[in-house]
Known about the structure:
Blueprint: H1 5-33, H2 37-60, H3 66-74, H4 83-102, H5 120-141, H6 150-171, H7 177-187, H8 193-214
Helix pairs in contact: 1-2, 1-4, 2-6, 3-4, 3-8, 4-7, 5-6, 5-8, 7-8
Amino acid sequence: MKTMLRHCLLAELLGTAVLMIFGTGAAVVNEQTQTLGHGGIAAAFGLVVLILIQSLGHVSGAHINPAVTLGFWAAGRFPGRRVLPYVAAQVVGAFIGSFLVQLIATPGSALGATLPAHGSAQAFGIELFLSFWLMLVILRVTSSFYEQGLLVGLTISATVALEALVGGPLSGASMNPARSLAPAVLSGQLTAIWVYLAAPCAGVLLAVVTDRLLELKPAPPA
Length: 222
């Protein structure tokens, strides 16, 4: 039975808020205590994504990312009429989560905002590739041929954690416009915000094209 749109939107709003609470919340906790480290923050993002996929995936697909929603639509696997409502729910959820994180943050905290370490051009390239690879993994493991329940969530969350671990020090490893927008606005850290809005969208569209090139086709008769 097809899930009603309001249930899907609630799941996306709640899921994106929880992503912010535990993901960017880990960055804020580490800011104050220095107990998690960069590896701990990357692990927090991976773990919360796994939990959200397993708990909300059957309701809304657990996109929790406007770029992922765009990618599924471009791949022909998501109805166009649901794209804007999904994105709106994700953005609202991100702001709610980021506001709750702000309640525990010290004055002047960046709230886990993503910022370029070595300029906008490098950050754009990194975010483009990270978003491309994440979306390609999602498309491959959620295809009917490969999908295997829990392994889907484990593979996607491992990809998020790996990309956050390696790319985080350079670009913040956002891969998610809503995840970057909310803390940037609330903290006033709007430096190069266009990178974190444009690069993930471009990356997922490139992944859709690549996924089509990778589709297995029957061999022509001899």
